[in-house]
Structure formats: structure tokens, C-alpha cells
Amino acid sequence: MSTRGLEVTRDIREGIAEGRYPGGFRLNEAEMAARLGVSRTPVRNALSVLAAEGLLDYTPNAGYTVHRFTVEDIEEIFRVRIELESLAARLAAENGLDPAQDAAMRESLERTAELVGRSCWNTRIREAFLPLNRSFHAAVREAARNAFLVAMIHKTNEVPLFDLIRWRRFDAELLRQSLDEHRELFDALSRRQPERAARIQAEHTYRAGRRMVQNWSRTEAAGGM
Amino acid sequence: MSTRGLEVTRDIREGIAEGRYPGGFRLNEAEMAARLGVSRTPVRNALSVLAAEGLLDYTPNAGYTVHRFTVEDIEEIFRVRIELESLAARLAAENGLDPAQDAAMRESLERTAELVGRSCWNTRIREAFLPLNRSFHAAVREAARNAFLVAMIHKTNEVPLFDLIRWRRFDAELLRQSLDEHRELFDALSRRQPERAARIQAEHTYRAGRRMVQNWSRTEAAGGM
DNA sequence: CACGTCCTTATTGGATGCAATCTGCGGCTA
DNA sequence: TAGCCGCAGATTGCATCCAATAAGGACGTG
């Protein structure tokens, strides 16, 4: 991989994450190369890297297919994720928040509160909420000050369509509940209460996993992915 | 990668794990290719995969060097590992042991007990103990029945020289203590006591991390790795 | 008509050639 | 003498070529 090779890897990874290449889809080297306007070499590199990450299935001399995640995979991943995210919250509470992290979390909370106050409800609310949600949790993980932990959490979030499916059902009630939980977690972090922070985060991630599994089953049943 | 490419990847990974390519060592494509008797292509594939795994550092147009792990890295990794291993123990206790796992753990315990009983003490004791230790913990992880969790734990164990450094200081006292802890963990698993099993495993891994950090500092100070 | 074998074809695996980029050194200049 | 420019060597990045393997179909036979 190189300047161009890194781009190719990123392109394919995003294509998988966004569902453009669904589970079971066969990725042909020559075809991908033609589509991306490069030769087979950088494509091959990208495919082997993504296969090593587990995003693709590889059989020698037969090629690469997008890994088809099952609901059991999702349950396993979230069981691990609960531990990792709650560890991050515990460490963040132990370390305390630096001013930048505190500011980022406060802003996320405020702007989410604005969304809750909106009278008209439409899908743009969800699109506004997702980045706020991400930045809030990113601040928590950053405050944990453990780069390896952050990398591991990131690996639990590389499943295709994770964010989309997880927030597929989205209504005013869910948004309000999420805000409440974030506020409680922020309070625990500010007060430097590691155990409480870990517990809140664990429950938060647990509920996220439950929603994920339900929506995932529905998506699979609809023949999609 | 292919039939040969997979071999090349494995060779280089083992070379790093065994310390043949120490931290900071520069891996030259052409040189590696000549040494392994293949062309640059499979070597390039192997290097990019290992770089994606974090075992190598990569700078475009400048090549690959073996990642130099610091004692801070080790501390971060073990902080995560404690959670993952104790989760595995908890899940194993919830699931219970199947006959094969039960047998594997019993055999590991018995043969370790034999080692403890040995009167003559030499380095061969350590070499006999390491596989027994590995198989015991492998049985625990298998009983957790969570493939994703096992893969994540494996990633926390890919640091070069991990096993060697971790067990560098090894004496009769340490062996006896390890056996006691394993017996206690096995008891908790047999009795289906998830919380107790998780606690024992967490403390076990915590102590392993402490030894690891101490030995690692000494190794670094000695200029090695 | 069914099954096995052989062959064709498409695709991957590996090797090599060439261009682009970086590094190190020597010389030049202020 | 210190700093900068430029050139030469080495190394990586990408493209292309050829061999090897697997899949699918056609054909022949029981």
C-alpha cells in the first residue's frame, strides 16, 4: 500500500461499511481495479488487509467475499463491547476530564438537548444526533487515555452498517432517553465516580446491543444487508 | 497472499514474535524476499498485513520497521486484557465446562502438579510448564463460547517476546502459586460461579501484567528487544 | 437419462520492469 | 565554517506479464 493504496483500502472499507458491498458479495480484483481506476496490485493489498481484519472472507485461489455477519456475531461482539466501553468509562472517571473533553461533552449534551426541544420531528433529527452521539462517546474514550483500548473498541465498531442499523428505529422517546443517560454518565465522570460511570456505560452499551440485535434480525429477515 | 504468501506472513510474524527482528528493526522488501526465496510480491503483502495489525510501523515510501513497544504500551494492553480474560472466565462459568474442556483442564493441572513435585529445578521445568499453562487458559477461553472475544484476547498476546519475557523470572514459588490459582479458577468454573471465576481470573491476569512490566523494563534497560 | 471425465475459461498468485520518491553526500556559496 | 542546493543511489509503489489453480460446461459412456 502507498499513497494510492491507502486510498483504495479506505474506499473498499467504506464501501463495505455503507452497505454498497453487502454480506456475501464477491469482490473481484480486476473489476475493483477497473472501477477504482488503478491496477490490481493496490487492490490486492487492500483485500488481503481487509481479510486479515476479518471484514472479508478469503479462500486461496478463489477470491474474497464480504463477511456475512450473523445475529450471533453481533451478540458476541456486543458482549465484548460492553466490557471495553465500561472500562473506558471507568478509566475516564479515574483520570478525570481535561478542559477540552469537558467542553466537547457539554456541547454535545447542549446540542442534543436542543434537538429534544424541537417540535417538528423528521429524519434530519437523527442525522443531526448521530455526530453528537459519536463525539460524546469519543470524548469518553479519549479521557480513558488508553490508545490500545480505543483501538480495540474501534474494532468492535467496524461491522457494516452498524450505526445505521443501530439507530434505525429512532423516535423522540429514544432520543430523550439517550440524552438522560449521557447526562448521568457525564455527571459520574465529572464527580470522578469510576464504578458508577462503568455501570452506567455498561447498561448504555447493553441497551444499544439489544436494539442492534432487534434491528439486525429485522434487516436480515427483509433479505437485506 | 496465497499458499506461499500465507507462509511468508507466518514466517515474518514468528520472526518478530521470537525476537529475531527486534523493535525498530527495518524490514527491507528485497532483502526479505531474497532471504525467504520468493519475490517481493508476497513479502509486500505480508508486510502490509502485519502493519495493519500494528506489529509493524509503516511510513509511505520509506518502508516498514518493527514496532517498538514501550512499557506504557504493555500497561495499556494488560489493562484491557484483564477485562477480556475475566469476561472469558465469567462466560465459561455461566456456560459450564463440556467434557473435553474439563478433561483438558484436569490434565493441565495434574501435569503441573507433577512439575511442582520435581526435586531438581532447571530451565526445562519452565519449558514444560508453558504449554500446560497455555492449554489451561485456552480451555477457559474456549468454554466462553465467544469467538470474537477469543480473537480479541489473541490480539493482546501478539506482542513480541510476550511469553518469554513474562516468564523470564521463574522459580518454584511462582510455579506453585500459579498452580494454586489455576486450581481455584477451575473450582470456580466447575461450581458455575461466574463472579468468583471472573475475580480470580482478573487477579491472575493482573499479577501476570505486573511481572510482565517488571521484566520488560529490565529487558529494555539491558538494551534488548 | 445419469454420472463421471476432460477441457475450456476465468481468476488468482507470483515475478519482474519501470516510474516516483526519499535519503545521503558532495560541492557551492554567503 | 555553516548552511543550502543538487545529484546519485537505493528503495518503495504501481503496472503488467506469465503460470497455476479452481469452477463450470460439454461430451462421452454406462
Automatic annotation (TrEMBL), chains A, B:
Protein name: GntR family transcriptional regulator
Pfam families to which the protein is assigned, alphabetical: FCD, GntR
All residue ranges annotated as the HTH gntR-type domain in the record: 2-69
PANTHER family named among the record's database cross-references: TRANSCRIPTIONAL REGULATOR, GNTR FAMILY, TRANSCRIPTIONAL REGULATORY PROTEIN
Keyword DNA-binding in record: yes
Keywords, ordered alphabetically: DNA-binding, Transcription, Transcription regulation
Record InterPro entries: GntR_C (IPR011711), TF_FadR/GntR_C (IPR008920), Tscrpt_reg_HTH_GntR (IPR000524), WH-like_DNA-bd_sf (IPR036388), WH_DNA-bd_sf (IPR036390)
This protein's record includes keyword Plastid: no
